[in-house]
Amino acid sequence: MKQASKFTRYIVIMVMVGLMLGSGLPMATASKNAPVRMVPQNFSALADTVSPAVVHIRVEKTVKGGGPAFHQFNQNPFGGNEQFKDFFGRNFGQQRQPEFKQPGQGSGFIIDKSGYIVTNNHVVEGADTIKVILKDDTEYNAEIVGRDPVTDIALIKVAAKGNLPTVPMGSSQNLRVGEWVAAIGSPFGLEHTVTAGIVSAKGRVIGSGPYDDFIQTDASINPGNSGGPLINMRGEIVGINTMIIAGGSGIGFAIPIDQAKDIIAQLKTGGEVTRGWLGVTIQDLKGELAEYYGVQDKSGVLVASVVPGDPADRAGIQPKDIITEVEGKKVTTSRDLTNLAAKLGVGDTARVTVLRDGRPKTLNVKVGKRPLTMAAASENQQKEKEGGYGFEVTELTPQVAQRYNIKESTGVIVIGVEPNSKAQAAGIQQGDLIIEVNRKNVASVQDFNNLIDQHKKGDGINLLVKRMNGGLMVIHLA
Predict the structure, then answer these.
(1) Which of 111, 213, 256, 406 shows a CA-CA span of 20 to 30 A to 234?
(2) Cα–Cα distance between 389 and 68 in angstroms, integer?
(3) Which domains does the chain have, with CATH numbers?
(4) Following CA atoms 403, 225, 227, 85 in sequence, which dihedral angle do they give, to the nearest 10 degrees?
């Protein structure tokens, strides 16, 4: 009887284990402190709690000259506009008549009961009208409080008739790869669609901008989800769903909520985001480059160039310096320095430690304001527009080179061309690498600006351009 009893208990235990696995109850691993959550039994409670605070956003914009209504987010971080798509639908952004009303849609989530709503910048940028639809079909007209094109975050507000439902913000820093998450939004206009998956990766750098730090998830995300929340199993927002890879299955990206919190706060109080600026172009130290400069732990970033007259230049930072610390915080990668500089207070003095000829040197830098904000584009980039040609260029950094699949090390990249401009008429395209201006080499945006200024009053400007899959060509600007 005792043997039969032991056998019976063994069978019961095995059946219970099987039921736990099938039901999604947590099972302990070999480590007592590291339980693994299996597939959740359902997401109903999560959806019921969070969905009321998720909104559907409809926008309308007057488009002139046949240009795309929301061109900013049509850009492909990996080069070309076909692989990546924004979240406005299949027909959104196509060229049409010289002037027409163009609709778009996206998602958002309420963070304040008085009516503040977070969404993506590309959802509302340039919109004439913005309508917000709640889960109970209540509609509100919304106004833009502030936008940050650099991180693609926007804050809008509705005049609420009562206290609106809200959703709490969690922490993206605590997210673990493999953790379950859910996305709620309006893919293809299908309001309050709930999809689930896991965190596929963290800290993804995909070449979309200087502050790349995306959460990758395989929760199903489609056009219309843009601006909606990525939620953990506690019903907290951990990310803002932002982009997908067209043709890719199970590959979506979200802005980490920890990165977004400070941006949202600045938009709420001032309508724009102010970031610190040093005025250097930088490059990661890897492989032979690290060995060449004698940096054995590969810590620090190489100063490729210094913008004349900007804070770093005034403080004495020089090209080929290696920046290792900012305000005592270690700098390992270009992204580290970009993020640290952005958080510095404009007008404050920051201690920047560099290696120069192998010797450490600390310099005091009076922090400037990063030119690329919602209110004004980069001064260097905007100068070409002011010159009347209608295109923008930027430095050829490693990140930009990766984005446009460029192997060259010198020149400037065209990052935007205005519709019906002289540049468009001449045939300049986004992604063109400008190597020379009137047979003079271009090494930086500053070089390009100077050469343009020297020749724009003459008979015209000849640009030597290298185009991906097109080789070298000469483009004449009248």
Answers:
(1) 213
(2) 19
(3) 1-39 (no CATH), 41-273 (2.40.10.120), 276-369 (2.30.42.10), 379-477 (2.30.42.10)
(4) 20
- Rounded to the nearest integer, the mean pLDDT of the chain is 79
Query: Closest Cα partner for 55 from 185, 239, 240?
Result: 185
- Pick from 474, 456, 476: nearest CA to 465: 474
C-alpha distances (whole Å) from 183 to each of 34, 77, 173, 400 are 25, 22, 18, 30
Rounded CA-CA distance 444/423 in Å is: 19
Dihedral sign of CA atoms 272, 277, 283, 284 in order? negative
Residues with active-site annotation: 122, 152, 226
Q: Which of 179, 252, 194 is nearest to 218 (CA)?
A: 252
Cα R_g (the chain), whole angstroms: 26
Q: Is the pLDDT of residue 290 over 90?
A: no
Pairwise CA distance, residues 466 & 471, whole Å: 5
Q: Tokens 């896991």 correspond to what residue?
A: 198
Helix (H) or strand (E) holding 229: strand 229-232
Whole-angstrom distance, CA of residue 427 vs CA of residue 431 = 12
Provide the angle, in degrees to the nearest 10, between the axes of the packed helices 445-455 and 379-386.
Answer: 20
Q: Which of 467 and 27 is assigned the larger pLDDT?
A: 467
**How confident is the model over 47-98, as pLDDT tens digits?**
999 999 999 999 998 776 544 433 433 444 334 444 344 444 444 444 444 5
Cα 119 from Cα 108, distance rounded (Å): 5
DSSP secondary structure string, 275-319?
Answer: -EE--EEEEE--HHHHHHTT-TT--SEEEEEE-TTSHHHHHT--T
**Cα separation, 277 vs 297, whole angstroms:** 26
Predicted pLDDT of residue 208: 66
